[in-house]
Specification:
single chain, 26% helix, alpha+beta, transferase, acyltransferase
C-alpha cells in the first residue's frame, strides 16, 4: 500500500496518507513508466508542497568540464 508521510503542525509527529494503489504500472516504454511515476510523485508533493525538499541538491557532482548546476 503506497503512502505519503506528512509532518503535523508544531512538531507533533506525522500522519500517513494512504494512496490508491495502482495494480499494474504502464510498461509500454521507459518514458511512459517514468511519466507515470512522476505524476504520482507530483500528486504527493501537491498534498503538502511546503514539505517537499525544494532545496535538496540532488545533482552535486558533474562530469569533468561541465559547470556546476548550483
Amino acid at each position: 500500500m503506497p503512502f505519503v508521510p506528512r509532518r503535523k503542525p508544531n512538531g507533533m509527529g506525522y500522519e500517513l496518507i494512504s494512496l490508491t494503489p495502482e495494480r499494474t504500472p504502464p510498461l509500454a516504454s521507459a518514458e511512459v513508466t517514468a511519466a507515470w511515476m512522476n505524476q504520482i510523485i507530483e500528486q504527493c508533493i501537491l498534498m503538502a508542497p511546503e514539505q517537499y525538499m525544494w532545496l535538496h541538491r540532488r545533482f552535486k557532482t558533474r562530469p569533468e568540464g561541465v559547470p556546476p548546476r548550483y
